[in-house]
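One such given next:

>
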Amino acid sequence: MDRRVIWAIVLMMVIAIAPTFIMKPPVRPTAVAADSAARRLGDSSAIRDTGRVLGRDSAFGPIGVVEADGRVTPVTAPAETVLVSSALYEYAISTRGGALLQATLNRYQALDPAGKGKPARIFPEGGAIHQLALNVGNDTVSLADWNFEVLGGSAARRLEVKDGRKTLTLRGQRGGVTVELSYEFRPDDYQIGVRGRATGLGPVGGHLLIGMGHGFRQTEADSAANFYEFGVVTKTDESSLTKFSSLDPGERVTLDGPFEWAAVKAKYFVAALLTVDSGAAQISGATARALPAQKDVTRAEVTFALPVATGGEFDYRLYVGPMEYPRLKAIGHDFYDINPYGWPGFRTMIRPIAVGARWLLVWMHEHLGLAYGMVLVLFGILIRIVLWPLNQKGMRASIRMQGLQPEMQALQEKYKEDPGRMQKEVMQLYKREGVNPFSGCWPLLLPWPILLALFFVLSNSIELRGQSFLWLPDLSLKDPLYIIPLVMGASMFGVNKVGMLGMPPSPQAKMMLYFLPVMMTVMFVNFASGLNLYYAVQNIVSIPQQWYLAKERLKAQAANAAAAPPPVPAKAKKSKKE
C-alpha cells in the first residue's frame, strides 16, 4: 500500500508541476479585427484615426493635430515632469497629457545586469501608462498631446508625500474644451486616486480610454521567466490572465467587461486600474495588441475603457507597485489573485497553505532576524518536528500491519472465491487488532501539499526575490551550480534506503529506491533553489527518525519470528493428508 501511495504522490506532483514546462495558458478572448475591438469599447474611431486626432493605430501618442488640409502638425511644445516621492516610491508625471512616465520603487532593487543595485524602475523608455483619450460620439479627443498646467505653481512640481495625503492637480484647455485631472498620493501606499472632469464637450457620455503602455521594463535576473509573466489580468466573478506570450505578433484581442479591476503585470510588479469602492462605473472592456515584428511576443499595447458620466466626470484608482500579498489582500475584491498561488483547480487546496507558509517565512525573517535561506532550513526542520508524532504513529501502524501479514494471507487463501467475504474478514481483523490500514498513508501525504505550496511561494512571492544564501545568488531561481538539487536527490535516496531496512525485498522496492530520487532530481533541477533547499533539509532531518523506526521494525520482526510456531516437516504434512 505504501508504494502505491508514493507513486500516487509522484503522479500528482507531475500533474501539478508539468504545466510549468509544457503548457502555454489558453487565451480566453478570440482575435478580432481592429474596428471590431474598438467598437466594443465604444466606437471604431476610439482606436483608429479620427477627424481631429491622428495616432498610430492607437488613440494615443505620438500624436499630432490634423489640419483642415490634411497636414499633420507635430506637437512641439515642451513638457515638464512632476516628481512625486515618498519612502516607497518616486512617480514621474508628465504635463504632456498627464501620463505616468516612470515609477521607481525605492524598496526593491533591479536585478538585471544593466540596472543591478539601483532602485527598480519598472516602465521601459516610451512605455508610459495612464495616457488618456475621450471617446465622444464619432470622435476621439486624445489628451496625449495636450500641455497641462500644474495648479499650485512651481512648488507643486516636486511633491514629497510624508505626512498625510498630497494632491497634484493639472488643467488643460484646447478649443473651448477644458479637462482637469487630480492625482491623490499616500505616503504608505502604492495606490493613486484619480479624478477628472471634461467640460465644453456638451453631454459627454462615451468612454475614457486609458492606455496602460506595452509592458514592463526588464528588471529581473531571469529575463525569460519575467517576460513569460507579462500579461493582462481582468476581474469579473474570477480573475482571468491573458499572457502576452500567448498572442501572435500584431494580434489584437478584446476582453469584455464589466471588470472590477484590470491590470498589466510582470512577475513581481503590476500597474492596475481599480473601480472598486468608488461608486463609479466599472471598467467596460480592454484590448491588447501585440506589437508587430516580434519573434516571441513580450510587448503588447494595452487599453482599458471606462464609461464617463454625462457630466464628464470620472473617478478611479491606480495601483502602481510591487505584488506584496498583504497590500493586494487589503484592497479586497480578490485583487491578490493577480499573483495566484497555483493553477485553476489547485488554488482552492494550495492557496491557504501557501498564504500560511508565506506568512510564517516572512515572520521568521522579520522577527528572528534570519536570512531567508536559514528560514527555509528552520522551516524544513519545523515541518518534520510537527509531523514527527504522525510519522511515529504511521510507521508503527505499518509495523503492526506487517505482523498481521500471515493472518491476512490465510484469510485471502480461505476466501479467495468470495472477495466480499474476504474483505469483511480482513476489516474485522483490523478492528480486532486495533489497526487502521490508512494510518500509514497520512505521514506520506501531508508533506506534499506543503511542498507544492512552497513551489508557488518561492517562485512568485516578491519577498524571496533576490535573496541569496551561501553560494545561491537567488533563492527564487535555480541553483546555477546544480549543487542543491543533487543534495536533494541524495537525501531522498538516504531516506528511502534507511526506511526500507527490514522490509521484504522486492523488485518494486528496489526500483523505488533508485528511480524515484533520480526522477525527482531531474524534475527539480531547474526549480527555485529555495525549494530544493527546503526539501533536502526535511529529508536529512527525517533520516534519524527513519533509522529509529527501522530498528523498531527489525525488533518486531525478530519477536514475531520467535513467537511463530515451528514449521511442520514435509513428511508430517504428507502423513496428515493420508
Notes: The longest helix spans residues 529-563. Confidence is low (pLDDT under 50) at residues 1-5, 20-76. The first strand starts at residue 53 and ends at 54. The radius of gyration is 32 Å.
